[in-house]
Structures are given as structure tokens and as C-alpha cells.
Design brief:
This protein is 27% helix and 17% strand. The chain has ten helices and twelve strands. It starts with a strand and ends in a 13-residue tail after the last strand. The radius of gyration is 43 Å and the shape is elongated. Helix 4 runs parallel beside helix 5 and helix 9 runs parallel beside helix 10. The strands form two sheets. Strands 4-5-6-7-8-9-10-11-12 form a nine-stranded mixed β-sheet. Strands 1-3-2 form a three-stranded mixed β-sheet, with no helix packed on it.
Length: 332
Amino acid sequence: GANFVPKRLLSYRAPQKMRKKMALGLAPRTTLPIHDFPVDSKPVGKPAGKVLSPHSGPMRGTKVEQSATTPTSYQPRRAVGESLLLLVLLACLGCGQADSTKPVEPPPEIAELSFAEQVALGRAGDRKRIECDLPVTASHLTEVFEKPEQETWLRDLILDGGTVGDEACEVIAQLPALRHLRLRQSPITDVGLAKLAECESLQILNLPHAGSSSGTGTASDGSLTNEGLAVLATLPDLRLLRLGGGDLDAESADVIAELKSLRQLHLIGVPIDDRGLRKLASLPKLQSLYLDDAAVTESGWDWLFAEHPQLHVHVNHQHVDRDPNHADHSHD
């Protein structure tokens, strides 16, 4: 019929002039290009429906006869390429998953690095804190911090190993951005404390083993006295003070009461009595008070909790049950 294309035309290629006219719409299109549809040379049966071309779309009014082996859809070469590309991508993803299963070694803890290694990381911009459990001496500090005024990156200096004496305090005091200093096992005396008082950026000063064991309380024998303690009043933003040393006495409370910026105070082995407790409680910004081996009586504590219930209090490393803020604090 007029609506069917004879089977033989499927393998027929129209002359070039005719194909140009067909492309310009000057001649009716009655054939399909041979590369658009697979050719079957076997005898055909009855017409089976419209022929779809992936390039030209559905052919209106054009039907062909198809055999049982003639496919009814066309899979273009582009689809094959896309399939291959998908396989390559899946293979790459598989490789990535395989690599991700390899164990990744965690970075070393900061305290496990040497003092010099941590300084190098800080200078590279990876650290603002030094926390070292390994032995550090004054010679280490002097050698590494050859120009301490240039170490603008350092905020926290935590030295829990070794002995750092007064001679190192002059170097430490020149660190321009230092806020937190902790020196364990370091018997800092009046001389070193006077140097540290020159570090105006200091906010946290933790010296649990300051002073000497002589017990005479005089600066001449290399101890920490109330006179030396008074220089800390020059620090404009000292917020936390932790001091330990047998050379301080009950009168130390009068000196510490002049450190008006204090928020947290921890005294170790300082024999603060009831009168001294009242002086310390007068600090206008005080929030936390820790006293170990003090000489405060039961009536002294009664007065404190009655008059200053907002204070968070530790006595001899223990929470005080009467403290209403016993669960609302942090330790340094």
C-alpha cells in the first residue's frame, strides 16, 4: 500500500541529488539512510509498525515490514561509549574505596613532641600552644627562643617536665602574646616573678612549685616572699593564679587581695586563716577559690558560704558539699 516502504528500499541509497532535495524538503522522503537502521535481507512478513530513527525521529506515514529477528529499537554508538565511561568511573571509585581502607596513623599527641619540634610547628602556623612533658631547662628556652620578641604565635606555654628557674623567666617575659604559663617543678622566686610581671599579656599564671624549701621567707635565700608576690599587681588582666610554696604565710592574703582582676585563685600549702579568707573573698571578680592545707576553721567556712554563696570552693582537692556551684566549673 501507499503507507508502506518496500523491503528492498531499506538497502537502497537514493542518488545524491535526490538526497539533497529530501534534506531541503523539496522531495518526499521515502527511504531511510542505511546507517540509521539495521538491514535484514531475509524475507519479510506483514507490516509490523512504524520505524523509529534515532536521528530523524518517528517517520510519519512510513511503515516497513519486519521479521521476527529485526529489532524494534536502535542502540546508538554513543550509548556504548557512555557505558564504557561508566565502567571506568566505577573502577576508579572501587580503587578509591580500596585505598580508604588503609589504616591512617593519627598525629602524635602534642605533649609527646619535643620542645623544639613544637616550636617549629608553631612557627609554621600549625600551633599556638606548647605543652611538653619532656624535660625542658632554661638553656633549652634560651637556645630555641633566641629572639623571643618575634614569637608572636605563642599563646600557651605549658612545661610540666624539667626545671625552669628564674633565669628562664626573663626569656618567657619577652613573649609578646603569651597568655597562659604553667611551670611545674620550677622553684620560681621573687627574682623570676619580677620578670614575669613584665609580661603584660599574661592572664593565667600557674606555679605550683614556686618558692624554695628553706621556709625563712627572705628574698636573699632565693625564696618567694610576700614582697615578691606584690609585683603581680602590675599585670592588668591576670585572671587565674595558682601558687604553691612554703615561704608564703597568712599575710599573703593581704597581698593577693590587691590583685583585683583575679577570677580564680588556687593556693597550695599557704596557711590562710579565717581573717585571710575574708580578705580573699573581697576580690571583686573572684568566682573560684581552691585552698589546700589552709588554716581556715569551720566557722570560717560557715561565714564564707553564708556571705558568698556564689563562690565555687575546693578544700584540700575536694569539692565542698555546701558549694551550690560544685558541678559548674572547670579545672586548669
